[in-house]
Automatic annotation (TrEMBL):
Gene Ontology molecular function, alphabetical: aspartic-type endopeptidase activity
Statement: the UniProt record of this protein carries the keyword Nucleotide-binding: no
Biological process per Gene Ontology, one example term: signal peptide processing
Compartment(s): Cell membrane
Parts of the chain that traverse the membrane: 7-28, 75-95, 102-118, 124-143, 155-175, 187-220, 232-252
UniProt organism field: Heliomicrobium undosum
Organism lineage: Bacteria, Bacillati, Bacillota, Clostridia, Eubacteriales
Protein name, UniProt field: Prepilin peptidase
Keyword field contains Cell membrane: yes
Amino acid sequence: METILPLWWVFLSGAIMGSFLNVCIYRIPRGESIVFPGSHCVSCGRPLPPAELIPIASYVIQQGKCRGCGEAVSIQYPLVEALTGAIFAGLYAFYGGISSDWAAAAAMAAFLIVIAIIDLHHKIIPNAVLLVALLPIAVWLGWKVHGANGDVSIILNSLLGAGFGAALLFAVFWFSNGGLGLGDVKFAFVFGLMLGWPGALWAMTLAALIGSVVGIAGMVAGKWTRKTEVPFGPFLAIGYFAVYLILGSRLGDILYSFLFLQ
Ligand SMILES: [Zn+2]
């Protein structure tokens, strides 16, 4: 089932979703409800009227300031809205329309954005986000098994990918003395379910590779030292998402036949 929508409409729905993700990113690590109270300025607490809740546009019109107290609003708000919009629209182009594949990838992206940015700020990956992600992932797995005429080996493969990533990161956690958190271990388990084996291996390799390149760049630029704690969650998010897309596309088949000469 595919529906054809204008691309700007898909971008806008992504930006609106991004606006909700901003609420999750701010409130979940603070233990606040993501529903009540409604959106308000984090400096003065003034509730925001609908005109100030338009994704990206409100920030630009208000020149990045709260209309009540004049405090600067973080640039992260419009950036997350634009990023989510761009990913939703990009996936629309990638999958050629709105489909169940589009929905699965868009939902995965939404969870990963929240996880990556919370980890950047707080160096934690909240259990609540991972637990909530498990529900759609379970539905997605069931749908895949159904599509494969009840072939349960798909679930075994999923568990293998999840177990591999979690075991590897747990070993790193154990021997590195805090170089990694248990949140990373749980992340690898939950999203490893979507990649299976050997997808989780590629994803972990890519995350470690990007993490090393960024880490070395940070040290060369003199911003970080060897002791700087760089959260691994954002790299895991990029690695797992990129490999998920590659595996589910023709590019994955091409790469696979190239690597294994089939
Ligand atoms: Zn304010």
